[in-house]
Write a structure and sequence with these properties.
Length: about 230
């Protein structure tokens, strides 16, 4: 994965295609994320104008994230262009919005960028992994380490730890998974809202057994405290 996406010399059509593909990959995006990942040499206002134009063309559509910030999903035309199902052109619900925004923030807004993988890409990398496990959110980092991402949606720390333990336990039945862990090529990522919750979850993880050498990483996305996914932009 390239550290930076080069956009110099791109036509407007190529730039629009990259934005639409980015939104399709991450299920949603924001002006900040698009600017940082695709158009780092453009101002926030310039990117907003591009995205607004894509919304006017029904390639994208926008909804309220946290007022006044908007998030963008595929529009009716963008959905057809990408060949995805109709629900991908709808606003995200009260569970899916924080889940998808947390993944976007973790992958695109931190110091170290990640690429979110779709289900097909996960299965291409891990042909031994059943489809039911491949649909879980996965990323790769700049060192090509595979990451399984668990987003804390506000449950007690011990509940989050149990869910993480179950995620890992389901994979330990596959020797190829243990080989990934042993080689330092797999990481469990837990995204939560506060540093205090990080501490609580980390302590709760100590009540479970983990494969030797398993990498575990925490990321903090403060907006998780406030997100609700049901307000459409007027």
């Amino acid at each position: 994965m390239n550290k930076n996406t080069k956009t110099s010399g791109l036509s407007a059509a190529d730039r629009d295609r990259m934005i639409i593909e980015h939104v399709a990959r991450f299920r949603l995006s924001t002006v900040e994320s698009i600017r940082k990942t695709l158009l780092p040499n453009s101002s926030h206002n310039a990117v907003r104008k591009i995205v607004d134009r894509l919304c006017s063309s029904e390639l994208l559509q926008k909804f309220t994230l946290l007022h006044p910030t908007k998030y963008f999903v595929l529009g009716k035309l963008g959905m057809r262009r990408m060949g995805v199902s109709v629900h991908r052109a709808e606003s995200l619900g009260p569970q899916s919005l924080p889940q998808e925004f947390a993944l976007l923030s973790f992958a695109t807004l931190g110091t170290n960028r990640r690429l979110r993988l779709n289900t097909v890409e996960v299965q291409q990398r891990c042909s031994w992994l059943p489809l039911a496990l491949s649909v879980a959110p996965h990323c790769i980092d700049q060192k090509n380490i595979l990451e399984l991402v668990r987003v804390d949606l506000g449950g007690p720390a011990d509940y989050v730890a149990r869910k993480c333990a179950a995620d890992v336990q389901k994979r330990t039945h596959f020797p190829a998974f243990l080989e990934l862990v042993d080689a330092g090529q797999f990481r469990l990522v837990i995204v939560t809202a506060t540093t205090e919750k990080v501490t609580a979850i980390r302590n709760a993880l100590g009540n479970h057994l983990w494969p030797q050498g398993l990498l575990i990483h925490f990321a903090v996305v403060p907006q998780l405290l406030f997100l609700k996914g049901d307000e459409k932009n007027a």
